[in-house]
Design brief:
homodimer; globular; Dna Topoisomerase Vi A Subunit, Chain: A, domain 2; two-stranded antiparallel sheet; alpha/beta; 200 residues
């Protein structure tokens, strides 16, 4: 016997091993799980993959995922059109929606500036953002990027780019996560929390 | 906007979140990866899931996964029919094949005895194992079960069950993993390594 699985099993393992966050062992575990799962469960997963590729589009205005473009947020008349929250990925839209603290519109960049991965400003939805700002409707841009090197680089780039436009540009506060323990905070986070201290 | 994704995206996230080793965040990451992936890549994964459910069977003799039953190992005339290695899952067959140290046949139990999960001897391929032993061909049974509570319980159960049959019943050696560090070995493993010490 060869030291790899028979064709279909190996193809399934390879398919899962190509997904983010799944290694070869995890892929094998999932493949054998699906082998023992009911036909309905496996079929449902295969259908969900096909369906999402067929039906899901990106909103022509904000770049969020949606079934119909413009997306429900861009076409909702109750949303505040004067504030645009710039995020890296569609999943960040959902994270911010879950806070129920934001009622404006979004703009999904599709990533962050990352010279190491050869991702520059032209690879992101930045020209589209500038187009949206031409309408004079927008008064504030909230840069809600990931608090890591790539996110910081993108925030710096965008705040310089937007400064001539006389639009208020803000960014998310850095500090201690709610419910965390001061003892376990890293120095940089604690330093930012000190810099950004407020009156109690 | 609702605080869940549109239908197809949420169905895909739910589908992945139901797989072993994938949590809700990981499922979301995979779903968005597939959304941005090429149609071909997504299609290949959906096809691999369908294909494996359509084509892959379990060997009627040993219970291993295969495209044709009996499996290539059971039908290989060069394999030593006097030794049967009993494992929990089909993936364990592959792990042992990769050692290139074993040339006998396998028997896949389909799990281990686990009273907490309501898995008893009758839920495993134990009657099938006893049937195979009726032929007098088998001289040794190697119990290659996982070295955890359930595996140990199954080893104890099987060695008692097989003792009247006058077949040699062996089990895998416990001890320090090759390439590991004595300092980081847990007490039980180190104790087993001491008990099983050999002349150097």
């Amino acid at each position: 016997m060869a030291l790899a699985y028979d064709g279909p099993v190996q193809r399934l393992i390879d398919g899962f091993a190509g997904l983010p966050g799944i290694g070869p062992k995890g892929a094998q575990r999932i493949a054998f799980y699906l082998l023992s799962a009911s036909d309905d469960e496996a079929q449902a997963l295969a259908d969900a993959i096909r369906e999402v590729k067929q039906k899901v589009r990106f909103c022509e205005i904000c770049g969020n995922v949606c079934e119909a473009s413009p997306c429900p947020i861009c076409s909702d008349p109750r949303r505040d059109r004067s504030v645009v929250c710039v995020v890296e990925e569609p999943k960040d839209v959902m994270s911010i929606e879950r806070t129920r603290e934001f009622h404006g519109l979004y703009h999904v960049l599709g990533g962050a500036i990352n010279p190491m991965a050869n991702i520059g400003p032209s690879d992101l939805a930045i020209p589209k953002l500038l187009d949206r700002l031409k309408s004079d409707e927008v008064e504030e841009i909230i840069l809600a990027l990931d608090p890591n090197i790539e996110g910081e680089a993108t925030v710096t780039y965008l705040s310089r780019l937007l400064s001539p436009l006389k639009i208020k540009v803000t960014r998310l506060a850095s500090g201690l996560p709610v419910g965390s323990d001061l003892e376990y905070a890293d120095e940089i986070t604690l330093g930012r929390a000190l810099q950004g201290r407020r009156e109690a």
